[in-house]
Design brief:
alpha+beta; de novo design (two linked rop proteins); OB fold (Dihydrolipoamide Acetyltransferase, E2P); 5-stranded antiparallel beta sheet; two-stranded antiparallel ribbon; 7 helices; 17% strand; globular
């Protein structure tokens, strides 16, 4: 049976990231340091074009990953990473804006690798990663957890109790949202400690990612 690329969860989530990036370039806000909207919008349009071609080629995932549109997408995503570097490095970039841009970049630059996963659910469209807890702060009824994937630090707002510094846990990098005044960039996939090294990409089958898949399904439905 031919792979139905129009419904491939990796491509659907990549399209969601592309839509989010285009939404950011259209937003009217003065808090946009060093973001060259025209250039970023052009790159987003080029990436969207490549995604749409991939969605209607009806090739198997391995063939998709090696295809010309996939290579073009990865090249444009690399350009995007360079274009957004000054924004992400600026200290006055709003936390939620930075989180949204980082999610778009992570989702788009990692698409080729994700095409090698099982693609069982929408959770295969985002990175499932083993992260190390750096610190834990109580904020009202929730906890603000700072985690690291070995390269970068991220914020996770959660109601999951019992998390301690040094724990290695699984997270899904979902579209960021503001929770209790803080930008939350990921969701813990349970409180079970992971044996993998920090930064390891986790197979969808090795975690319970059903809630993450449900959240992505809702995001796609809204957009």
């Amino acid at each position: 049976m031919t792979h139905d690329t129009a419904k491939d969860p990796r491509l659907l989530v990549a399209k969601l990231a592309c839509d989010e990036l285009q939404r950011i370039t259209r937003e009217k806000t003065s808090a946009r340091p060093a973001l060259h909207r025209g250039h970023v919008a052009e790159l987003a349009a080029a990436i969207e074009s490549a995604i749409m071609i991939l969605m209607y080629t009806y090739q198997e995932p391995d063939a998709l990953a090696a295809s010309e549109p996939a290579r073009e997408l990865q090249a444009h995503a690399a350009e995007l990473q360079v274009a957004l570097a000054p924004v992400l490095a600026a200290k006055d970039t709003p936390a939620l804006l930075s989180a949204r841009l980082r999610w778009c970049l992570r989702t788009l630059t990692g698409l080729g690798r994700r095409l090698g996963s099982s693609g069982a659910t929408l959770a295969s469209g985002v990175d499932l990663v083993a992260v190390e807890v750096r610190n834990v702060t109580r904020t009202g009824p929730l906890w603000l957890i700072r985690v690291s994937d070995g390269d970068q630090a991220f914020r996770v707002v959660t109601n999951l109790p019992g998390i301690r510094p040094g724990d290695v846990l699984a997270v899904a990098f979902l579209p960021p949202r503001e929770v209790g005044g803080e930008a939350s960039e990921a969701m813990f996939l349970g409180a079970g400690r992971r044996p993998e090294p920090t930064g390891s990409i986790l197979a969808e089958e090795s975690v319970d990612a059903r809630e993450a898949a449900s959240i992505l399904h809702d995001e796609l439905g809204r957009r």
